[in-house]
Write a structure and sequence with these properties.
By secondary structure, this protein is α/β, with parallel strands linked by helices. It contains 23 helices and 39 strands. Bound molecules: zinc ion. Zinc ion binds next to loops.
């Protein structure tokens, strides 16, 4: 029995390591112990304040990146001088590399038997920076023995020069962590201010191994590979089980005990000794990582160099300055781009990126924008105009610590896009920070917002591909939602016009959405700038998030990275353009009813928006119908506000009409293509099935019933009294369907029209609304005017020579048939043929309905059909533009009855 210095005692919290009170702690047989670490303990050994400071600095700057972190340095020896047939150290290293280390890691073997394990060679390699170093061989408190390769001493460890590329070191060796009696070699690695290790796992006393290939089956040789097994197991897990060095140590110690079932039986003492003697030097929360951003992304140092160089090479255009200093003492850079000769009293647009440190692509997107703007100044006249007249502010890396740590949060674990004052809510957001603007990053960004006349903010994120506008914290609509939608559409159009597409995410109607309608979050940058800050005009700062990449947080190939940058350059440029748009009046939407009847009074509702940056008064809004101005209204609109303008319109005749609402352009308005919206107004054409529409509409009768004069007149002969009776029948049904019959009138044709003998035309003496004309063209001038003319009426009357009868007589023409007077029985009291037809007279803007027969009984039958159109006794429904029917006096009473009428033809 011997003493072991162990930190497992501090990690194993349950039971009693001195159960029997004999002052011997951790006895397998006498004390009650389980040996499983309940917390993970690391030991930071410093003898002086300077040493402590050195170690803490190294922890602060520890930032494993794949270029060097994903490299393993394996130092293997032959500790049993080939007894057992294999060099145990080298055998174990190969076992580890073959079984646990991923293929994408660089594996360097320095082996005693290979001859390349020498002190200078080991020192050289360690100076290059390795994520993981593993030594297996004899050792003492101050030395790693490389066998025939020499002795690597504490002084070598203390003089390594690997800088911030500090390694996690595991030493399967005796005594190298013997911190009690000496400043051991493990401590020297940790204390080295110029490099060395970030953590050291080693033994506090002599470590035992099995010989030969059995080395991996138990004792220190087994525990050695279990550290590696634990490391790569943790690397494969989600971030909840990151590869913290404390966890690597604790998991291996735990696994070893499960494999080896330690109890108080005999040789288990060696197993117990093995897990007790291996301890961890260093901060157990130091995290080893491999999920790292590819080298072709701009890291913090590269960004700093790039910006400072830009500042130097373009002194009149670019100003680069720090907004603040982060917890890890990095400067948060802001870039101001403007023609400094033209002063600073200009509108500003602010673009921010990388609030979330893991969203690496966003830095590139912002940097590409800076690049293109500067590169095209005085080359592209439009960019020149923007830079001359506007201030472009870019913060390409709001969260440099997070970017370097490759984590969403800043170095203090705060989600910067939850740390802004507006709607700051730590009960909803666990990473909101201790107070609004508690973080140097958010505080710094707000100093920029407060220093310039910012009109627009674009905050670039990744992890999805879409656009979002406030509010983030509530699903209640923002007051300027219409302007937001218009601006989103505008930014998308600018992107898509360069050959890119902005597809709505699955389940979305558009590429954009209100933030909280996606998911609510509190204390965001866009809610702060929109909710708490205004432009010099008093309008809110219009603020957007663009999420630029959704397949992870950044593309993993360089070409994909450039694609995203090129795509979102256009969106940023468009917002920059907008910064100079003082006037931009826009008609957002026009709403009209789907079903419109001729002469119906309808409302045309339009939404007019001011998406210019200036408040406006007396914007003229016009309503145009088929290009003709119908009416104008005037509205005043502050910047980013909208209003509804309603026009009343009397619907024109049936058919499609172009309706335009136009917000008359301001002088100097930048975009006028959005000042109008065109709509097609579909006005129904009436057919007989609509009767008594349009002669009465919405309860208001609006028509004139015309019968022929009783004596010959114009081109016509004398009308019959039957026509007058028919007119009464029709007016009764129209009156029956109307509550207001003020405009229901009746005239003789000679009251309202006259005949021009010279030109042979009927002309009106007065204006009339819709007309019902009773009687054929032989007795009624109005019927003659329209229904004896095929260019007005598809079914028309004419007088023609009938070869069957050998005489000239009236005939009803349909597109396919002729119905002759002669073919009616020679005694017209017994039968007749009649027509009901509706036509729209385009140039007069009214409908004319005719009820007429070849003889008077046909007219009477037509009027009876109209009167009884809604009766169950109707022999057939009124349909189409015209019907041709036959009446036969089947009961011989010389009266017209419904059941004596049959349909001959329906037209239209
Ligand atoms: Zn984000």
């Amino acid at each position: 029995e011997s003493d072991i210095d162990t930190d497992l005692y501090y990690a194993d919290l349950d039971y009693n390591w001195n159960e029997d009170n004999d002052d011997k702690w951790g006895e397998l047989d006498d004390d009650q112990i389980d040996g499983i670490p309940d917390v993970f303990v690391g030991r930071i050994t410093a003898s002086t304040l300077t040493e402590a400071e050195n170690i803490l600095n190294k922890i602060k700057w520890y930032n494993p990146k794949n270029q060097w972190a994903m490299k393993c340095l394996m130092l293997g020896t032959d500790p049993a001088w080939d007894i057992g047939g294999v060099p145990e150290g080298e055998y174990t290293k190969n076992y580890i590399l073959n079984n646990f280390v991923w293929d994408n890691f660089t594996k360097v073997r320095l082996f005693e038997t290979a001859g390349n394990l020498t002190v200078p060679n080991a020192k050289y390699h360690i100076d290059q920076g390795y994520g993981l170093i593993n030594f297996f061989g004899h050792g003492n408190y101050n030395v790693w023995s490389f066998g025939s390769g020499g002795d690597y001493y504490s002084s070598d460890a203390a003089s390594q020069q690997n800088g911030n590329k500090t390694s996690i070191i595991i030493a399967c060796s005796c005594l190298t962590a013997n911190f009690v009696n000496y400043d051991c070699i493990g401590e020297e690695f940790l204390r080295n201010p110029n490099g060395g290790g970030i953590s050291y796992i080693g033994s506090t006393r002599s470590a035992w191994i099995y010989r030969g290939s059995a080395v991996v089956n138990g004792l220190a040789g087994q525990l050695d590979w279990m550290f590696w097994n634990a490391t790569f197991y943790l690397l494969s897990q989600d971030s909840s089980e990151d590869a913290y060095t404390g966890l690597i140590w604790g998991l291996a110690i735990t696994n070893y005990q499960y494999y080896n079932d330690i109890d108080d039986e005999g040789s288990d003492d060696l197993d117990w000794k093995t897990v007790a003697e291996f301890i961890l030097f260093g901060d157990p929360t130091v995290k080893f990582r491999t999920r790292v951003i590819p080298d072709f992304y701009t890291d913090y140092d590269e960004l700093t160099d790039y910006l400072l160089n830009l500042n130097q090479t373009h002194p009149d255009l670019v100003e680069v300055f720090p907004l603040n200093v982060t917890w890890m003492e990095r400067k948060i850079w802001a870039v101001r781009i403007t023609n400094e000769q033209t002063g600073f009293d200009k509108p500003a647009v602010l673009i921010t990126a990388c609030h979330h440190g893991n969203e690496a692509i966003t830095v590139e997107v912002a940097k590409t924008f800076i690049d293109n703007l500067i590169g095209n100044y005085s080359v592209d006249p439009e960019i020149t105009t923007i830079i001359d007249n506007e201030i472009i502010l870019v913060v390409p890396m709001v969260n440099p610590d997070g970017r370097e740590l490759e984590q969403r949060y800043n170095a203090r674990g705060v989600d910067l896009n939850r740390n802004y004052p507006y709607s700051w809510n730590p009960s909803q957001e666990p990473h909101a920070g201790s107070a609004p603007l508690s973080e140097p990053e958010t505080y710094g960004v707000m100093t920029l917002v407060n220093s310039y006349d910012v009109y627009y903010v674009l905050d670039i994120h990744s992890g999805a591909e879409c656009m979002v506008y406030p509010w983030d914290y509530t699903t209640e609509d923002p007051p300027n939602e219409i302007a937001y939608i218009c601006l989103c559409e505008d930014l998308i159009n600018a992107t898509e016009s360069h050959g890119y597409t902005c597809e709505p995410p699955p389940g979305w109607d558009h590429f954009y959405k209100q933030g909280a309608d996606w998911y609510p979050c509190w204390g965001t940058f866009i809610d702060e700038t929109y909710g708490n800050h205004v432009t010099p005009e008093g309008a809110p700062i219009m603020s957007f998030v663009i999420e630029v990449y959704g397949d992870g947080y950044y593309p993993t190939t360089e070409s994909d990275m450039h694609y995203v940058c090129d795509k979102y350059y256009w969106m940023q440029l468009q917002l920059a353009r907008r910064g100079t748009y003082r006037y931009d009046r826009m008609v957002y939407d026009v709403q009209i009813p789907d079903q419109v009847s001729p002469q119906e009074t309808i409302n045309v509702n339009s939404t007019v928006v001011n998406i210019g940056t200036k408040n406006e008064v007396n914007i003229e809004v016009q309503l145009l119908l088929n290009g003709e101005l119908i009416s104008s209204k005037y509205v005043s609109l502050n910047s980013m506000e909208n209003t509804t303008v309603t026009f009343e319109l009397t619907a024109p005749e049936g058919g499609s009409h172009n309706l335009t609402v136009y917000a008359v352009a301001a002088s100097g308005e930048n975009v006028t293509s959005n000042n109008y919206v065109n709509k097609t107004l579909e006005v129904a054409s009436y057919t007989l099935s609509d009767f008594p529409k349009p002669f009465t509409l919405n309860g208001i009768a609006n028509c004139t019933i015309i019968v022929g004069c009783k004596s010959p007149h114009g081109p016509c002969g004398a009308a019959h009294t039957l026509d007058t009776v028919g007119g009464i029948r029709v007016s009764s049904i129209i009156g029956n369907y109307s509550t207001d019959i003020t405009n229901l009138t009746a005239y003789l044709d000679t009251d309202v029209a006259d005949y021009d003998d010279v030109n042979c035309v009927v002309y009106y003496l007065m204006w009339l609304p819709h007309i019902v004309t009773v009687g054929g063209p032989g007795v009624n001038m109005i019927t003659w005017k329209y229904f004896a003319n095929p260019w007005y009426a598809p079914v028309y009357f004419s007088r023609e020579y009938n070869p069957d009868s050998g005489q000239e007589e009236w005939v009803i023409n349909t597109p396919n048939n002729k119905y002759w007077e002669y073919n009616v029985t020679s005694t017209p009291e017994l039968d007749d043929i009649g027509v009901i037809e509706i036509v729209y007279i385009q140039e007069e803007g009214r409908y004319v309905l005719m009820a007429a027969g070849l003889g008077g009984y046909g007219t009477k039958a037509a009027c009876l059909l109209l009167q009884m159109f809604d009766s169950p006794d109707m022999p057939f429904p009124l349909q189409g533009i015209a019907i041709v029917f036959k009446w036969v006096d089947t009961n011989g009473d010389c009266k017209v009855q419904l059941n004596e009428i049959t349909l001959l033809e329906q037209v239209g």
